[in-house]
Amino acid sequence: MFIPTVLALALAAIPSAFAQDFSAAHNVTPISGTWSSGSKKVITGSGFANPANMTFTYPPVTGVSYAFTDDGYYEVARYRFNSNGSSPNCITGVLNWHHGQYTFNPNGSITLSPFGDGYQQIQDPCAAESNFIEGYNDTELYRSWQIFTDPVDGPKLHLFQADGTPVAPLFQVYSTANMLPTQLLRNVTPTITDQTGARFVESNGARHWTPEGVTSIVSGAFLVSLASLLL
């Protein structure tokens, strides 16, 4: 009787995957909706990417956009230039698109787990191949996030990458998610491999952790503590 009781209490203490704190000190609105940086010219959805033929519609300016549904799906659109300090003329342009499912982790971070059909276009005038397209299916971890109210633009989302680097402030463009269908949108066949208990997917030469693998990493410390209680 003791073991089931401890297990029940421990499991009850795990936050729901989509539990959020909407207190004024943290978030003033849910994360669901469509968010865009700067001039808000980069927007997720069909106006940015066409996964069927792996093409992009170029926005007039650079920026980034995230869209989240209230049932766990996401989409990301990025258009940016990367400077080269040693060769100022070698500026790299990158357009990036991916989508999949997101998870709120117990430690307050967010994991973006792609479906496997993401891609990006890289333009580098100084490279041997100056313009090419490749698959992009990296799982992305954002260690924290907050939503504030901007006095002019309304809800403003701050995301912090795994190393603490902030994403450009994002402003809510729509209260609903403007995104392409939440399923594989081009012909890819991921191969799932099990390695030391954490699973990853290989697709078009790129690797990313599956939700199961990421969950095992995030919750590992908790499972060790739980095991010690049950012994």
UniProtKB/TrEMBL annotation:
Subcellular location: Endoplasmic reticulum membrane
GO molecular function (one): unfolded protein binding
Stored InterPro entries: Rot1
UniProt entry keywords in alphabetical sequence: Endoplasmic reticulum, Membrane, Signal, Transmembrane, Transmembrane helix
Top-level taxon of the source organism: Eukaryota
Keyword Transmembrane helix: yes
UniProt cross-references to Pfam families, sorted A to Z: Rot1 (PF10681)
GO cellular component term of the entry, any: endoplasmic reticulum membrane
Membrane-topology annotation of the record: Single-pass type I membrane protein
One BP annotation, GO: 'de novo' protein folding
Signal peptide: 1-19
Family under the similarity heading: Belongs to the ROT1 family.
The name this protein goes by in its record: Protein ROT1
